[in-house]
Design a protein that fits this description.
GO terms for molecular function: sequence-specific DNA binding; zinc ion binding. 52% of the residues lie in helices and 9% in strands. It has 822 residues and is of the alpha+beta class.
Length: 822
């Protein structure tokens, strides 16, 4: 069998040449056929073979070994393609041409011989008959001569034609070669285009998949309309209700953020479009119809989750005449707005339900709200309010007392609670203004003032409070934190500790301690936010530590019943409110304990309304005192938004009471201290090794904090248990770390170093901590403990100096004011 490559004359039986069959792979077979100059549809590849001369040596296996006689057969590597053209093409063409010339010559000779045989037969016939004539012989001779001349001419013509044929064959061969080369080039270009097309198709599929993934991710943040707007930025978009609802929600949460995103080409509707849609929602005074629709459409809540608490309170607004453009009406000035809000008792949800201007809450309005809520499938089981004059009148009309803290509505009880944060503020106000008579003994703020004077150093066991907690006035009295810091477990323990050391002789410290301790525990029971905050039972949700919590309620009720304010001989409203709240909590839990396992008692106060008022004020930025129309528009924005925001300064939330030290002037610090020199124990010096008892207690507390932060050995170390009863033992409820005596000696040395460097003021220098640590290089304690101790002591000193600066500034302002008035 001959090699399938065009013009290759190698045969299958030729020695020392291997032949290879066409591959089964279609793409590879196509390349072989293109090299052979054949088409797949016209050529049978089953029996075709290509010799080894058309393959590179790298494509052959065993070529060298075969030449050396080490291998019997040459093998072809998988995927090999023939690339070598035959080097004997022109020689083969020349041999073929010679053979064709020989063939043509043989044909001519055979024709001439045939003609001669015919002539000889005629001559023999004429001689045999005897009629041959000389003339005929001459004619025959002429004919022969003519034939010879014709033969010569024919030979010349044959040579010319043969030359032309050779030229044409060479030209044809050149054309075939050029055509084959162009075919190879076109095939190569086609394969390249096919490869480029496949690569582009893969990239397109990859980009299409990425586009779908990006679009699916964007659907979490954007609506379908917003995605269309992203794809077609220059096209006008017709926003649907879903687009407008989401955009209004975002705009209500942060108008500035909305404008910023629109300027950065985010796909949001124009603000005027949102305003046009928002104008369709009418927020009229009274029960809010949009809220009714929202609550009616809520179907995912169970009946237990629909148990709710109604709270209402008043908010002061700017008393001005206003104009309502949609109704084209002028409106009179009002002083306050009454707002009622629903809050889930079990589930975490809230919603304003009612508002009106200069409208005290009445029995009729309460019943209307209860009825509307009940028609929506929600059940109001409790009501919360403060103890203002109008609210006390309301409770009287509902026949609610502290012995009967409920009223009936359509055959079921609705329990009434007094707002606990308001109650603890009232306890604080009466304590510092009038004092209390407990067990025929009088206690007031003087004992706390004395305690603050005793512990006035940098290291203080009463570091949470200051004289500011006893002199609150105006807006400061509205801050709950100022009251809770005063009536805290730390202050109660400090009273007991100072008294045990003989510092509070002459004061009824025992009754004062009982008042502070009981009030702190009672407030903890009624302000629980999580089911289990820590190991303290009073911090658990009501119902999880039933016996302990009820004992605290009983103790508080007994204290309030036997306590009188100043010279009053009867219970004041805030005392009745405390008793009413204690009784209502027990009765409410008894009624619903079949549906719930515990109660988060912070949901039974008015914090939700206070936060709402703070949000309404904050929506105006610096303009936090809205009029009636502005309140209406802000309420609408609140309902449309996500109800998130930052409390304004008008909210009753205490700010950080440790401001930054704005001035580092030592002379200013000395001036402050010269005006406010507190009567306290002298500071320790180089010659003094022992700290005053109360300052040592504070140092022990700080050392325990450092040990806890750095996980140093403390009271859990069995080999270093200190049996001495100290301040940490007294104030701890199981979570404080008590340092060992060895660690306390090290911290005592650090305290002496700190006092020597800072004195009564604060050392003003660079590398503050570095200098202190260098001075304490001989103290046997690790570096992190030194850094944390000196940093904490520095902040304690800064806080003390800032407080003195504030008091000095206030006194200086008052003196200037008095001089101006006089």
């Amino acid at each position: 069998m001959k090699c399938s490559v065009l013009h290759c004359e190698n045969y299958f039986r030729k020695n020392n040449i291997s032949f290879f069959k066409f591959p089964l792979d279609k793409k590879l077979r196509k390349k072989w056929l293109q090299f052979c100059g054949k088409w797949q549809s016209e050529y049978n590849c089953t029996n075709g073979k290509i010799c080894e001369e058309h393959f590179e040596s790298e494509c052959l296996i065993g070529k060298i070994q075969c030449g050396l006689g080490l291998s019997r057969k040459v093998l072809l590597k998988p995927g090999a393609v023939p690339t070598i053209k035959s080097t004997h093409v022109h020689e083969q063409v020349r041999h073929r041409t010679q053979r064709s010339e020989l063939r043509i010559r043989r044909q001519l000779v055979s024709e001439m011989l045939q003609n001669k045989e015919n002539i000889s037969e005629l001559a023999q016939n004429n001689i045999a008959e005897g009629n041959t004539m000389i003339v005929e012989e001459e004619m025959e001779l002429d004919i022969n001569n003519n034939n010879d001349s014709n033969l010569i001419n024919l030979k010349a013509q044959i040579k010319v034609l043969e030359s032309q044929v050779r030229d044409l064959q060479c030209e044809n061969l050149k054309l075939q070669t050029a055509l084959r080369d162009k075919g190879y080039a076109y095939d190569k270009e086609l394969r390249k285009k096919e490869f480029d097309f496949s690569e582009l198709q893969k990239k397109f599929e990859k980009l299409e998949l990425e586009s779908k993934n990006i679009e699916s991710c964007l659907k979490v943040f954007f609506t379908e309309g917003q995605l269309i707007k992203l794809k077609n930025k220059d096209r006008r978009q017709n926003w649907n209700v879903d687009d407008i609802a989401r955009s209004i929600t975002f705009y209500s949460a942060s108008p500035k953020g909305y404008r910023l995103l629109r300027r950065n080409k985010f796909p949001f509707p124009a603000i005027r479009t949102l305003q046009h849609w928002a104008q369709r929602i009418d927020i009229c005074p009274g029960i809010l119809a949009p809220v009714i629709k929202i609550l009616s459409a809520t179907t995912h809540l169970s009946q237990t989750q629909k148990l709710c608490v109604l709270s209402f309170d008043e908010m002061k607004i700017r008393s001005t005449y206003t104009y309502d453009k949609p109704s084209d009406s002028t409106l009179p000035a009002v002083n306050y707005v009454q707002v009622a809000m629903l809050r889930g008792l079990v589930a975490d949800w809230k919603q304003p339900i009612f508002y009106d201007y200069d409208c005290p809450m009445t029995k009729t309005k309460i019943q209307e709200i209860l009825k509307s809520t009940q028609n929506m499938g929600y059940t109001i089981v409790a009501m919360v309010c403060d103890l203002g004059g109008t609210n006390r009148s309301l409770l009287s009309s509902l026949e609610v007392t502290y012995r009967q803290p409920w009223f009936l509505f359509e055959g079921r009880k609705v329990y009434v609670f007094a707002d606990v944060p308001h109650l603890i503020k009232l306890i604080r106000n009466h304590f510092i203004d009038s004092g209390f008579v407990i067990n025929d003994k009088f206690v007031n703020a003087a004992i706390i003032a004395e305690l603050l004077n005793i512990t006035a150093g940098d290291l203080s066991i009463t570091h949470k409070i200051s004289h500011k907690n006893l002199t609150v006035s105006r807006a400061e009295r509205q801050k709950v934190k100022m009251a809770t810091k005063l009536f805290s477990n730390t202050v109660a323990a400090a009273i007991q500790r100072a008294a045990s050391l003989g510092y509070l002789n002459g004061h009824n410290w025992s009754e004062c301690y009982e008042l502070f301790k009981t009030t702190n525990d009672w407030f903890d029971v009624l302000n629980v936010r999580v089911p289990r905050a820590d190991s303290r039972c009073r911090m658990h949700a009501y119902g999880l530590a039933f016996e302990t919590q009820n004992n605290i309620l009983d103790k508080m009720s007994s204290l309030i019943l036997n306590m009188r304010v100043g010279r009053n001989t009867t219970l004041l409203p805030f005392q009745k409110g405390i008793l009413q709240t204690n009784n209502a909590l027990r009765m409410l839990f008894h009624d619903i304990k079949g549906n719930v396992a515990f109660l988060l008692t912070y949901r039974l106060n008015q914090d939700v309304l206070e936060n709402f008022f703070g949000l309404i004020r904050a929506r105006g930025g610096m303009h936090d005192h809205p009029d009636r129309q502005e309140f209406k528009y802000r309420l609408r924005s609140y309902l449309l938004g996500r109800n998130v925001g930052v409390l304004s300064n008008g909210a009753n939330v205490a700010a950080d009471d440790t401001p930054d030290l704005e001035s580092a002037n030592p002379s200013m610090t000395g001036l402050i201290l010269s005006h406010f020199r507190c009567a306290t124990q002298p500071m320790a010096t180089d010659d003094e090794e022992n700290l005053p008892e109360l300052e040592y207690d504070a140092l022990e507390n700080l050392a325990g904090y450092v040990c806890h932060r750095l996980k140093m050995s403390g009271h859990n170390d069995e080999n270093n248990i200190d049996s001495t009863f100290t301040w940490v033992d007294q104030v701890s409820e199981g979570g404080l770390c008590k340092p060992t005596q060895e660690i306390m000696n090290s911290f005592k040395s650090l305290e002496i170093i700190f006092r020597n460097l800072n004195g009564d003021s604060l050392l003003i220098t660079e590398n503050y901590l570095k200098k202190h640590i260098e001075e304490a290089s001989s103290v046997n304690i690790n570096m992190k403990a030194k850094q944390l101790f000196f940093r904490s002591r520095m902040y304690f000193t800064i806080r003390k100096l800032n407080r003195l600066s504030l008091r000095y500034t206030s006194k200086f302002s008052n003196n200037n004011y008095n001089k101006t008035v006089n």
